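1st attempt posting a full record on here, be nice pls
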Amino acid sequence: MGMSEFYAGASEDESLATLKLALDRGVSFLDTADMYGPFKNEELVGRGIKGRRDEVVLATKFGNMRGSDGSFQGINGRPEYVRACCDASLKRLRVDHIDLYYQHRVDRTVPIEETVGAMSRLVEVGKVRFLGLSEASPGTIRRAHAVHPISALQTEYSLWSRDPEDELLATVRELGITFVAYSPLGRGFLTGRFAKFEDLPEQDYRRFSPRFQGENFPKNLALVEKVSEIARDKGVKPAQLALAWVLSRGEDIVPIPGTTRREHLEENLVALDVELSAEELERIDEVAPKGAASGTRYPEGALQFVNG
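the predicted structure (as tokens):
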């Protein structure tokens, strides 16, 4: 996402170099969506994997409608929209099939059975291999899974977004669904790179995120400083500790840290070798328990589209 929109300072050349390095280092799961850019990120990923398609588990999403001018036009889960979006994504990605196709947000005006039914027909004709949902509630997941097996649920999960521990994780584990954790670094806050609100670039969308605003910023900074102290004692960077924590939650949990630069990719990969002891996990729980973050994870207008 950050390679094409929302975060400031991305370079296409650096993005392509980062994708190449990721594949060279054995990273095999790439996650994009038609709305990123909008539409540009799928084209970028398509160029990045050219000649290396067989090395990649390729995931993309539909459901968030965007205009060519970047306008947000609502959520759409109608069957005809599902089919049209898939064909458009295949063309932009320059591939003949998508490995994992997500509904990006649940359309509350369309029965999930109709949306997933249309998605299942994409599997039948070979355009898609596996189906996923993003930010879906436990009840919706069960209804969808009854129509066609859901292979992955993607939802925000990190040291400052632990809501999935309430019911979502139990639901997907009961059904044998992989949990894909997006924003495992708290949109960059958990890396310790931001000391004040002004550190965010002018055009960065995080300036509109409640957890980065007002009195929430210093409260969340205090949380990050506690996490950073544990990381220093461990001899790793805060981002590596945060990723290692997500990885420690289970082999069925796959974090997808957004990365736009090679140096951050290399830093993130170190987390694979960071093992946290029971004592360290207990210490992390003490400083970052569920509900510790100050502020909601999305602005009020966007909250209506999560946990659908």
